Amino acid sequence: SVPADASNPESVVVSVLNITATLGSQAVLPCKSYRMVWTQDRLNDRQRVVHWDVYSTYDGDNKMERLCDMYSAGDQRVYSSYNERRIFMPQNAFKDGNFSLVIKGVVESDEGTYSCNLHHHYCHLYETVKIQLAITKKAEDASEYWDGEKPVIVALEGSTVTLPCVNHNHIWTERHSEEEQQVVHWDRQPPGVPHDRADRLIDLYASGERRSYGPLFIRQKMNITDTAFALGDFSLRISQLESADEGTYSCHLHHHYCGLHERRIYQVFVTEPVKEKKVVNLTTHHIAPAI
């Protein structure tokens, strides 16, 4: 038998299921994750976008406004003509992870709560950083501090302010080959065998490569659909169940690029089929008495 690969990052157990099926039947061990659906990234930009918003209470008018946004494969866009060339993010933001917003010549109407929003649609990740900006007319009052929830910047009116938003996590700055980054493993532990001595059943890669282990009869009775990565469905089907199929099965989902490492555990029990009870219908024929 081939041992499970212990070199993979430790997975987070997200579910434990007990599955009971009868001898000779087919058991389906459900293992699905939308985050593992593989789609070719033709733009090679991972569908990443950053946008800055501000919630302002200036002049008693509470409003949320989109200031600017930028895609990793395109230019940044400023929504208000007033802010053109007045606010901007670094052009190389998606290379060095610096998404900070620069505001030139700040005025009182710039006060508010700013949010830097990072969206990674490919990995289904969303991160937000909030910063409070206040304006003062006195240079000695300019300062920066933490209010317990977010940074607060008190800036001198007319100065240039940088609202920090830095994230060096590789998913925002680097590119990898998708096929090499996604893999699914199925392992099995016979009763009484610990997890670190589990046998590997199947390796499935987004590139289409599939590796099955163990004796031929085991490989023929355990399978995953060929559309697994297209649908995010990596369920294991075990046909012609036998008592020897009992044990603990594990579905490991690894999306190294997106930082997804999940494990689903299944306790499989095989039972004898219930014998059908024979029902005997007794029919009484009524015979008329002789006269």
TrEMBL record:
Domain Ig-like, first and last residues per copy: 9-136, 157-271
Gene3D superfamilies named among the record's database cross-references: Immunoglobulins (2.60.40.10)
Cellular component GO terms, alphabetical: cell surface; plasma membrane
InterPro entries in the cross-refs: Ig-like_dom, Ig-like_dom_sf, Ig-like_fold, Ig_sub, Ig_V-set, MXRA8
Keyword Flavoprotein tagged: no
Localisation: Cell membrane
Keywords attached to this entry: Cell adhesion, Cell membrane, Disulfide bond, Glycoprotein, Immunoglobulin domain, Membrane, Repeat, Signal, Transmembrane, Transmembrane helix
Membrane topology classification: Single-pass type I membrane protein
Pfam families membership: V-set
Main location: membrane
One of the protein's GO biological processes: cell differentiation
Protein name, entry field: Matrix remodeling-associated protein 8
Species: Ceuthmochares aereus
Gene that this sequence comes from: Mxra8
